Amino acid sequence: MSAEALIEIRHVSHTFDTASGPLQVLNDLSLDVPEGGFVAVVGPSGCGKSTLTRLISGLMRPQFGEVLIAGERVKGPRSSVGMAFQNPVLLEWRSILKNVMLPLEIVRSGLSRKEQEERARFLLSLVGLEGFEDKRPSELSGGMRQRASLCRALVHKPDVLILDEPFGALDAFTREDLWQTMHKVKAEEPFTAVLITHDLRESIFLADRVVVLSGRPAHAQYVLDVPREGPRTLDNLYTPRAAEMLAILRHQIEIAQGRAPAEEASARPAPSPPAPAPGERATPETQA
Amino acid sequence: MTARRIAVPVLAVIVFLALWELLVWANGWPTYKMAAPSDLGPAFAKYFDLFLIYGWQTLWRTVAGLALAVVFGVAVGMVMGFSRTMRDALYPLLVGFNAVPKATVVPIVALMFVGWHDFNTVLIAFMISFFPIAVSVSIGLSTLEPEYRDILRSLGASQSTIFWKIALPKTLPEFFGALKVAVTLAFIGTNLMEIVSPHGRGLGALFDSGKTNSDYPLMFAVLIALAVLGIVLYYMVVILEKTFAGWAERPAG
Predict the structure, then answer these.
(1) Chain-chain contact of B156 with A85 (C-beta, under 8 angstroms)
(2) Is A190 domain-assigned?
(3) How far off is chain A from B152, nearest CA to CA, in Å?
């Protein structure tokens, strides 16, 4: 596994000094993300999920353990990371196009000005924002702003895309639209992604591996490998098999929250994914 | 649309002057109680040259004080906005300094720099107007959502890049809001000094000479001249704001 892993998180522990004393958020957390993989991280509120994104992006260094990207230890911010947050944080004084081009002003991309613009326009059309290039962020809806934020995170072709609850503030239908957009973008612009989310359906729809973090201090409590074939369409989210996956994750979250007994949590390695239900299109499984 | 935007305020001024005239006429007040707008014309005509010369002096001293206030206020605001320790250290000092009525500082400064009319006037204009600028810049910078910083920091951008690309433009609306307050404050500062300072110049001195010579229409005329200068300067700030921070204005809807 670790030979092909792009992101390796090794035995990371982290404690914050807060006004009310030390607060340990991560405890011996280990996690691998293979190249081209899409890992969703779910867990109870305040379990250190956002700390995890800051460690991967190099905005913070772990006190114990290490984070490796492509075999190299992360010591500080690296330009090969793209980030999108729940708050789209677009710059109000710039057009959408200029917002998307912002990372190219910092990262040396080797692209000419014209090529930079073409790249930004290509991404915007990919997420369905063609014709909105010259609008200001305040003229766009929440979902559209989040699409633009996604383009900005991808414009400099990062190795790693970090998504910290990017769809958390959107209404349910807009969110589902954006999930489908994510699949479309990934097909055109392959990336390795870590998605922090509170939405279990979102996690199995987008990711090929879902990691459940335990309550604070967090470690990887449970790993679910989502079979390659699905659920990758919205309809497939309502099949018995998807329901089974969701039930497993739901149960793990309850254990993490301390609301269910933890004996079952000891089964850390992923169980074999549930067999495809009849009537569902199953593709030959090539994944381990 | 544009015609309406000019016509409405002009009409408001005319109505205001008419009511003023009516008030004085109805009460039969003499000019030493209150001069009517119709008394001001002759006063302006009589001292037209002085109004131009002194008006210019007042204006440039105010603008100079304001420019100093912008430079100093932005610098202090940046220090306080970026460093929590400096904010804790400087806030009580600034608030205390601002709480001292500047009218009490004027005679002290006038004695301290006796004879330096330009310098002490600019100094008071500066002292009275830098506070709102410093506070607004520091609040603008310290309330910048961390995600804005993270977006650039995760790409390896330096602190100064983050300042120029994000923190500064994002603070501009607050800065211009404070500058509008500072403009009027700076005028007050300039005039306080011009009135108190012996052999001073500027419109404040003209006001003072009106008082000494019992030329009441002149005193009122000076007030109007000050108001006009204040309006001019204020709208210059508005134009700057529209140019540099027009994005912050949402279309009314």
Answers:
(1) no
(2) no
(3) 7
Query: Looking at this predicted complex, what is its ipTM?
Result: 0.74
CATH code, domain with A51: 3.40.50
Cα(B125)–Cα(B65) distance, rounded to whole angstroms? Answer: 5
Domain presence at residue A128? no
Residue A106 is assigned to a structural domain of this protein: no
Residues of B in contact with A157 (CB under 8 A): none
In chain A, the residue whose alpha carbon lies closest to the alpha carbon of B160 is A106
Query: How near does any CA of chain B get to the CA of A275, in Å?
Result: 41
Residue A102 in domain: no
Write out chain B residues lying below 8 Å of A93, CB-based: 169-170, 172, 245, 247-248
**Residues whose CB falls within 8 Å of the CB of residue B4, separated by 6 or more in sequence, listed in order:** none
Confirm or reject contact between A168 and chain B (CB < 8 A). Answer: no
* Residues of chain A numbered 54-113 and touching chain B (CB < 8 Å): 54, 57-59, 76-79, 81, 83, 85, 87, 89, 91-93, 102-103, 105-107
Give the C-alpha distances (Å, rounded to integers) separating A126 from A64, A174, B242. 40, 16, 34
* Number of domains into which chain A is organized: 1
Burial of B12 (0-12, 13-18, 19+ CB in 10 A): exposed
**Domain span at residue A219?**
1-78+204-280
Give the closest of A54, A91, A106 to B156, CB-based. Answer: A106
How does pLDDT run along chain B (253 residues), one tens digit per residue?
A: 678 888 898 899 899 989 998 998 888 888 778 888 888 888 888 888 888 888 888 899 999 999 999 999 989 988 888 888 888 888 888 888 888 888 888 888 878 887 787 888 899 899 889 899 998 888 888 888 888 888 888 888 888 888 888 888 888 888 898 999 999 889 888 888 888 876 668 888 888 888 888 888 888 888 888 888 888 889 889 998 888 887 877 655 4
Cβ B69 vs Cβ B188: under 8 Å: no
In single-letter form, the type of residue at position B109 comes to V
Q: Which domains does chain B have, with CATH numbers?
A: 42-246 (1.10.3720.10)
